[in-house]
Amino acid sequence: MKTKLLAFLLALAMIFALAGCGTQQTEEPAQTPTSAPAVEDTAEPAAEPAGEDVFVLYTNDAHCGVNDGVGYTGLAAVKNALESQGKTVLLVDNGDAIQGDTIGTLSKGEYIIDIMNEIGYDVAIPGNHEFDYGMEQFLALTEMAEFPYVSANFLYQGEAVLEPYTILEAGGVKIAFVGISTPKTVTTSTPAYFQNEAGEFVYTFCQDETGEAL
After folding, report:
1. 20, 112, 102: which is closest to 62 by C-alpha?
2. Residue 102 — very low, low, confident or very high, per pLDDT cuts 50/70/90?
3. What is the DSSP string of 43-88?
4. Model pTM?
5. Which residue has the higher pLDDT, 15 or 86?
6. Each residue of 135-162: pLDDT tens digit?
7. What is the pLDDT of residue 211?
8. What pLDDT does residue 76 have?
9. Residue 29: DSSP 8-state
């Protein structure tokens, strides 16, 4: 009898214990603020950009290669595509554009200048082969060009023949293009074109070994 009563009491105790384990304690939900506290902004304002992106496209030693590679047609297409996207584009030639093929030889470089005008070059620097049709023709071509030829070290009796540089405004900034022609121009073109009737060199490119002439 005592054994049955003890077993009953143990079972009853286990029932109450299990019942206690099954109950969950609930807590008050945390209060969330309806708005974040104000924080004083001490950061300095971002600096305004100096200007827009500027794309500089350049050609070098084209040698009348109207259809070589992308050619002048492809160059114009790239330039127009960038400009259609609202980009600022500058087009530069680094020399040796007007000599090297039939189109240049037949026109003494004039047809190439026509093409460069049509595409819209902004500045050019004379290479040694710009003088292959003679000094008089080169100077005539610079007059035909609707863009400046610049060179800081191309001199006639010590005086600059061309403007040494040009400054272009693009994308909200000013960009300087300084022209430097190789001092070897006198010997890699036709030396007689740089001489007077007495055979004296009157056109020079500061071709001293020290660089002081520049």
Report:
1. 112
2. very high
3. PPPPPPPS---EEEEEE---TT-SSSTTHHHHHHHHHHHHHHTT-E
4. 0.74
5. 86
6. 999 999 999 999 999 999 999 999 999 9
7. 57
8. 97
9. P
Q: What's the token pair of residue 178?
A: 């300084």
Nearest to residue 126, comparing CAs of 146, 101, 153? 153
Q: Is the pLDDT of residue 92 over 80?
A: yes
* Residue located via tokens 């190789």: 182
- Type of residue numbered 172: G
Find how far residue 36's CA is from the centre of its chain: 46
The rounded distance, in Å, linking the Cα atoms of 173 and 1 is 107
User: How far apart, in whole angstroms, are the C-alpha atoms of residue 115 and residue 75?
Assistant: 11
Query: Are 207 and 188 contacting, i.e. CB atoms less than 8 angstroms apart?
Result: no
Structure-token match 């005086």, residue found? 159
DSSP secondary structure, 79-130, as one string = HHHHHHTT-EEEEEE-S--S-SSHHHHHHTTHHHHHHHHHHT--EE---GGG
Q: Is 201 helix (H, G, I), strand (E, B) or coil?
A: strand
Half-sphere CA count of 202, side-chain side, radius 13 A: 10
DSSP SS3 for 11: helix
Cα-to-chain-centroid distance, residue 9: 92
Residue type, 65: G
